[in-house]
Amino acid sequence: MNGENLYYEIQKSPKWFLLTTLVLFNGIFLFVIVSQYIESVDSGLDPIIDSNILISWSIVILMSVFFKIMRLETIIRGNGIYVRFFPIQLSFKFYSFESIGNCYINKLTWIPKFRDTRFFGFGRHRMIKMAGYYGMQLDFLNGSSLFIGTKNPEVIDKVLEQLRSKTILSKSKKRLI
Predict the structure, then answer these.
(1) Number of domains present in the structure of the chain
(2) pTM (2 decimals)?
(3) Which of 37, 110, 158, 168 could form a disulfide with 163 if both were Cys (CB 3.0 to 4.6 A apart)?
(4) Residue 145: left if φ>0, alpha if ψ -120 to 50, beta else—which one?
(5) Around Cβ 148, how many Cβ atoms within 10 Å?
């Protein structure tokens, strides 16, 4: 049972407006580069140095690629929960059920301890989410907590109930769906 996936979810970046903005910036930079290099037409009254244009454009392209490949992967297995926020985390982070005191579905309204962070939230209370208002909250035995965003809270709740029935996961629960 440890090797079998009970739940698997991939969330990709839903920020279409962010990607649209980055594509717009890429188009503007491409227009300026083409007009300055190929057509030899300076843009504006005080044209930008060519190397600055190329550096700025490469930064915008790298940001575009970063946001395009960004994804959150969550796997629940019989031995614990695996989470990866790619490309920030290259490998999965494993949380064993022995280290989890409580695991439940929580609705993200305004939870002051998380401060609406997208990733990390450095300290004892961390959050990893891409979109949505629901997530699986892990309260660890050492007093720290982790909120993992999900688009399927009902499915995760059924998996957690299945694990509770097999006494793999703590019987204490707090559902806020």
Answers:
(1) 2
(2) 0.74
(3) 168
(4) beta
(5) 23
Determine, yes or no, domain membership for 109.
Answer: yes
Residue 172 lies in a domain: no
Tell me: do 82 and 111 sit in the same domain.
Answer: yes
90 & 41 share domain: no
Residues 18-36 pLDDT 10s = 778 778 888 887 887 777 7
Note whether 35 and 90 are same-domain residues: no
Same domain, 34 and 60: yes
Q: Tokens at residue 34, please? A: 């083409």
Cis amide linkage into residue 87, ω under 30° from 0: yes
